[in-house]
Amino acid sequence: VAKALEQHYASRLEEHATELAEHFAHSSTEEDLRKAVQYGDLAATRAAGVYAHGEAARLLEQALQVQDVLDPNDDAKRYDLLNALADALLYAGEPKRVSDGIAPEMFAIAERLGDSARAAYSAGLVAESLVRQDAGPVFATPEWVLWGERMRKHAEPDSGQMIVADINAAWTHYANRHLREYWVSVEAALAPAR
Questions:
Q1: Distance in angstroms (rounded) separating the CA atoms of residues 6 and 21
Q2: Which residues of the chain, if any, have pLDDT below 70?
Q3: How far apart are CA 185 and CA 194, in angstroms?
Q4: For residue 33, is it left (φ>0), alpha (ψ between -120 and 50) or beta?
Q5: Cα–Cα distance between 105 and 170 in angstroms, integer?
Q6: Which pLDDT score, from 0 to 100, does residue 102 have?
Q7: Using CA of residue 154, residue 112, residue 30, residue 67, what is the dihedral sign?
Q8: Are 42 and 78 in contact (CB under 8 A)?
Q9: Is 124 in contact with 90 (CB distance < 8 Å)?
Q10: Residue 128, pLDDT score
């Protein structure tokens, strides 16, 4: 059915990516499962483009399940799919799922890959998720401090990620009324930003 639909919609595959992903996901061949992941990712991008973030998350979760069957050891692909899922969930109003499971898994994958940029990004994603959940009080929590330290550890010096890590540290100092440390962190962020 999937191959017939793919042939029938050859000139409009993007419009029918959801259908194609669903059908290819029922196959057992490697080629078809790769197509299921590809079409699932494409369908999720299209769904997010029309603000259907819940649907995008569902499609990405399905693509992750298929990817686990197809090649559970492809950490780079899993990271990319998890990253897209995290974005969809944040926009769908589910930041707790991102901070509790998805971003920490992304962080672990990035460390396995030895990819500090991805690790710093993942740590920052946890921080963003925590802010979306709790706003002000989050800056004084041990969880915020832990992920801030992880981001700082992996961020390149003078990079945008390091600037964000310094700003996050400043918020922690401010929330704990450590004003001297707050200003040190703010200055550390300002220098490379300038």
A1: 10
A2: 134-136
A3: 15
A4: alpha
A5: 26
A6: 97
A7: negative
A8: no
A9: no
A10: 86
> What is the Cα–Cα distance from 29 to 2, expressed in whole angstroms?
12
pLDDT computed for residue 135 by the predictor: 60
Residue 34, pLDDT score = 93
Backbone conformation region of residue 114, classed left if phi is above 0, alpha if psi is from -120 to 50, else beta? left
pLDDT tens-place string over residues 145-169: 899 999 999 999 999 999 999 999 9
Tokens 């915020």 belong to residue: 144
Residue 135 CA to chain centroid, in angstroms?
20
DSSP state of 61: H
DSSP reduced 3-state for 135: coil
Quickly tell me which residue has 């109003």 as its tokens.
93
Identify how many contiguous H helices and E strands the chain contains and give both numbers. Answer: 11, 0
Instruction: Give the residue carrying structure tokens 């922690």.
Output: 172
Tokens of 50: 């029309």
- Asked if 107 and 126 touch (Cβ cutoff 8 Å), the reply is yes
pTM, rounded to two decimals: 0.77
